[in-house]
Design brief:
By secondary structure, the chain is α+β, with helices and mostly antiparallel strands. The protein has a domain of about 50 residues: Cell Cycle, Chain A (2-Layer Sandwich), CATH 3.30.1070. Helices cover about 35% and strands about 15% of the residues. The chain contains 2 helices and 2 strands, in the order ααββ. It has a two-stranded antiparallel sheet with strand order 1-2. The longest helix has 16 residues.
Length: about 80
């Protein structure tokens, strides 16, 4: 049987990529009448989810929030602990 040049089942994006895509959509979307109060809550919830899976120190987290007239962005950089293979 000859193999086709493409996989029979498409690859699913990783959960990290899916989360990144969702955050980009959420944060890049224009605020349509919503108050900026949701950003601190969003920040807390994102960190809670990450802490469920990885133990991180508070000083390993860098959070930046930019607010413009039409768009707001939330950037979270986390230094993850090294894991051994």
């Amino acid at each position: 049987m000859k193999r086709l040049g493409f996989p029979l089942w498409p690859r699913r994006p990783s959960s990290a990529q899916t989360a990144k895509d969702r955050l980009q959509i959420l944060l890049a979307h224009e605020r349509s009448g919503a108050t900026p109060d949701y950003l601190p809550q969003l920040q807390r919830e994102i960190l809670e989810v990450i802490r469920r899976h990885v133990k991180i120190d508070d000083d390993a987290i860098d959070i930046r929030m930019d607010q413009g007239k039409e768009l707001s962005s939330l950037e979270i950089n986390i230094e993850l602990p090294h894991t051994r293979p």
